[in-house]
Every structure is written in structure tokens, then in C-alpha cells.
Amino acid sequence: MRKFLIAIVVLFFTVLTVNAQGVTLEQESDSTINVVGYFCKNDTMTFRNHQLKQKISDNDTILTYDISDEFMIVVTDSTSNGYRMEYIPVSHVSNVDSDTLMNGLMDELWKKSKDLHCVFTTDELGQVQHIENWREIRDMMKKAVPLVLDWFYQNKPGLDSIISRRQFENMLLVEFSTETKIREAYDELDLLFGVHGKAFDIGQKEFDDVENGYPQHIIAKVGYTEQEDDNDIEGDYAVMTKSVVTIPVEDAMDLGINSAALLLKENVADSLSKIKSDLVDSVKTVLKDQDVSVTQNEYYGFFFNGWPKLCYTEKIVDVGLVKNMELNLIEWSSRHWNIYEAADEEDSKEL
């Protein structure tokens, strides 16, 4: 089912590039769609989150990161000012060799943190406002990170000669040191609720813009979705965008090397710095000054009441000889909504 959904969404973006009618959206008399969460206390949604990274070179695809997580979102309180919700981890699976650097680290980190729930609040529209128990999460990570790195460095002999254990530990702890950082760590919340509170014009638009100083071309399409199966409900809607940013090769290489240098010991970082200009010149010679293309595909699908249904982002970095792709797909798997109809009627029902 997951592979089928991924194929459908990828197919949409492939068709969208060529034909504006890649996905059929029903045309309503409304001119805009407002993404608003109409949630109730005890509403429960279960989601599957699939994160994938792969490199494509000479028609060969190398899978470097493949993680599947399942989690629940439960509305624990509903007021006139917004909602209080709880993020509950359910399962975690690495779909590639657990000895891979990042996958092994993520596996161990999940084991140490799986029993901790993230409690967050939203405003009345559904936008995430605060992580209520961020200090609890921070304190738990202070205990978990050293234990995870103990295991990690024991199973990776010689790793400390490349990446300093102390520096790596400090870097990880910084990522869980503030409410803002912890919110960034729960990036699922931004994908699920990031467009709540926004209004979108129905139809398709195509325009040029500037992203961080670089030219960007955008295609956006918004509308109500057709009912195709029993899981669809009249009034479901979707927001879809495709953007392409063009970056000079030298800038892209510079960003990559600077990021890597943050993790490496000084002698390794110095070595990188020394070969940096030669590396950039070599790449530019091979690519003949070809720019790097960064394509971002996004899909946000919602039920009629604003609960996220399927959210998808895909980032493709094309440097000519090699393409790097990062995919994040969150899809709902089960739901229980409380629908308050009248005081003398049953106050909830499971859908």
C-alpha cells in the first residue's frame, strides 16, 4: 500500500511538470480554501511516516536512509483558544542495514526515547504553538544521547579518529537544548500542521520567485479532491506545489563542505579546506559550469475537518552526474473522531 501511494504521488509530480491537469480536482464555486482544524477532544489519528534518502548515479540507485515510523496524535483537550495534543510513538523500523551510520544511530535513539510522549498545543486554527513538555524531552535526551553514543562508538572502531565523540555528543545535545530545537526534531508536526491557518486560491498558478537569492520557478495547484474510495469524504481537499531553484555549482559545493566540516576533527576539516578549491574546480570542469537544480515537490491532503490525510515532500538535488533524493511521506492509517451532534444523541462515533 505504501509503495503504491508513493508511486501515485511521484506520478502526479511527473505529470504536473508536463501537463497542468496531472491530478483532477473538482471545481467548486468557492474561490479559496482555508486550512482549518475542526478537532474534538479525544480525536485520535494514527499515521505512518516514511523517510527515504537515495543517490542516483549512472542509472544506479543507492539507498542510504530508509526509516518507517508509526505514531498517534491524540487531542487531549479542546478549548476556544485551541487544542492540546499528544504525540505517541508506536513503532520504528529501519528498512536498510542497521550498521549504516545514520540508521544505527536512529535505531538506538528511538529505543531510548520511545516511551516519552510529546505534548504540544495549537491555536484554534490548528497551527502548532508550543511543546509543553520540552524540558522533560531535553532532560531525557541528556541521559539518552551518551548511552546511545557509548553503543555507537563501541560498534564503530576507529570512528573517534574521524568524528570526535565529545564533539558529536555536544552537537546532538544542542539539537535538543531548547523548545525551538525540540520542535524542529519533531518535524512530523510541521509537515502535518504547517499549513493550517493559511488560505489558498483554488486553481493553478505558475510564477517565478527568488529563494535565498537564487531564482525559483513555482507551480501550485489547490482544490477539492474527488471521492475515489470509502476512505474519501466529500469536502476533502489538497494543496500541491512544485518548485525548482537554480544554484551555482560553487555555492552548492561550498554549502556541502561547510556542513561536513562541523562534524569533523580539526585536522580532517583543515584537509577538506585545503582541497576545497581543487574539488570545486574539478566539479565545475566536469559539469562545464552547469548549475545545480534543486526541485521541491510538496503535497498536503486533508479531510474535510482539517485532519491531515496524506502529506508528502520530496527534494531532488541534481548536479548533473548525480541526483540526491530525500522523501518524506506521512499517511493516515486509522482514525477515531468525536463528532458532537446534540446533547441527547450519542456524542461520538468511530469512523
Q: What keywords describe this structure?
A:
351 residues, alpha+beta, two-stranded antiparallel ribbon, disordered C terminus
Description:
The structure is a single chain. Mean pLDDT is 79; it is low at 1-28, 256-269 and 340-351. β9 and β10 (214-225) form a beta hairpin. The chain has helices at residues 2-18, 101-113, 134-154, 165-174, 179-185, 187-193, 249-261, 266-287, and strands at residues 25-26, 32-34, 44-57, 60-79, 82-94, 118-123, 128-131, 199-201, 203-211, 214-225, 237-247, 292-302, 308-318, 322-336. It is α+β, with helices and mostly antiparallel strands and 351 residues long. Helices cover 31% and strands 38% of the residues. Strands 1, 3, 4, 5, 6, 7, 9, 10, 11, 12, 13 and 14 form a twelve-stranded antiparallel sheet that branches. It has a two-stranded antiparallel sheet with strand order 2-8. It is built from eight helices and 14 strands.
